[in-house]
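Structure representation.

___
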Amino acid sequence: MPRTRRTLLQILLPTLLLLLSACASSPRTISISESELQSRITEELSVPTTLLRIFDVNLSNPVIRLDGDAQRLHALIDTKISNPLTQKSVQGMVGISGKLGFDAASSTVMLGESKVEKLDIQGMELDDTYNELLNLLAAKLGAELLSNIPLYTFKPDDLKIGNRRYVPTDFRIVGHDLKITLLPQ
């Protein structure tokens, strides 16, 4: 009986180690849900911002949608723009979209290539001067405020199993989830 156990261990142990090493060297996939991304964007946009050193911009209540066809995240965001010099403010909605990518330095999934898709501001008669100003604000809003929003930061354990490190390589929107493929280094 002891001889059979030892023979069995001699066979099973290398087989088990081989299986474990094969698992550690295969790609992994992490899913981040639309609701997790929504929570993160809400958190990031909750801080008021000054634009062009003149306008106070408050963004709130983002509603996001993942678009698998375009591989972009879309968000509709309540917007309030105030001008402290004139004591006037306007409210409305801004629609943005952006691509999801990875910043290796911070191990973070970021919203990049943001652009304003829609700007709907109420309470302002829009003559040519205001239209031009709003278009400038919208371009600045997309370029400065809404680019490089951190959406998900990988924990060190997410990118390492045993001695094997993983690198995010592929970002795909599938249904209501962002699927990230991690390849071993």
